[in-house]
Amino acid sequence: MQLNGKTVVVTGGSDGIGRHICLKLAAEGCRLAIFGRNRERLDAVAEEVRAQGAPEARAYAFDLTDAAALEQAAADVVADFGGIDILINNAGVWHKAGPLDSIPAEMLVQTVQTNLTALMQLTRHLLPSLRNRGEAAVLNVASKSGVVAQAGQSVYTATKYGVRGFTDVLKVDEAETGVRVAGLYQSGTNTGMFAKAGEEVPNEIFTEPDDLADVVVFMLSRPPKLWMHEVRVEL
Questions:
Q1: Which of 18, 127, 171, 173 has a 20 to 30 A CA-CA distance from 104?
Q2: Backbone angles phi and psi of 229, in degrees to 5
């Protein structure tokens, strides 16, 4: 896919992996719709990507777990940009690792709603626009936890296995529509996700988000006869 001029929605774009994906796509000449909760950080990223070369960048601040706000944001972005070409579902939260009964009930619900339910809802809202673009893509940034069962991650892993299953079926369902679907399954990444959940981990040994963003650009920019529907990134 030729990325220059494409309109891309990136969820969780205010920091971490999402921010770096936005910066890399801006350098490719993409127009960016950046979704996240923090208006101040989103506006800062939008300014960064415009400086990096994006011909247009808009920030949409709302809570992904608010179904009504999510539907409105999807409608707004289609109206603002006249349609979209690429959806990158990147947003996610982490719960502190431990036995299932150590995970607070509200954290369990938040993890499922953010990592899985909102991802499916947003994809559902934007599919009609994607199908109208001739060539389009949905890329779900999942996690190694969608492939490998790891102790203490019961709820997080459940959401990521769900994303993997959703991705695999969506790929089959959209095979004849021109919407290509892919999943990225990465090991730990050096972001603030763990710290937000009060988890102390050796972030310095993990994949750098800037490098992971390069993988995203590589996946999306393959020629028409070559599509990487599943990529696993290991340390």
A1: 18
A2: -80, -15
DSSP 152-188: T-HHHHHHHHHHHHHHHHHHHHTTTTTEEEEEEEE--
Note the pLDDT tens digit of each residue in 42-58: 999 999 999 999 999 99
pLDDT tens profile 199-229 = 666 556 567 888 899 999 999 999 988 999 9
- For residues 8 and 88, give the distance between their C-alpha atoms in angstroms, rounded to a whole number: 7
Torsion of CA 162, 166, 169, 175, to 10 degrees: -150
Residue carrying the six token digits 């673009």: 133
Instruction: Give the pair of three-digit tokens for residue 126.
Output: 């934007």
pLDDT digits (tens, 9 = 90+) for 69-112: 999 999 999 999 999 999 999 999 988 889 999 999 999 999 99
Q: Is 60 labeled as catalytic in the residue annotation?
A: no
The closest alpha carbon to 191, from 1, 18, 7, belongs to 18
Cβ-contact 182, 229 below 8 angstroms: yes
What tokens were used for 124? 């559902």
pLDDT at 145: 82
**Number of Cβ atoms within 10 Å of the Cβ of 182:** 23
Contacts of residue 169, defined as CB under 8 A and 6 or more positions apart, other chains included, come to none
CA dist 57 and 66 (Å) reads 23
Q: Which of 60, 156, 161, 185 is labelled catalytic?
A: 156
Tokens of 56: 């247009």
Length of the chain: 235
Maximum Cα–Cα distance across the chain: 48
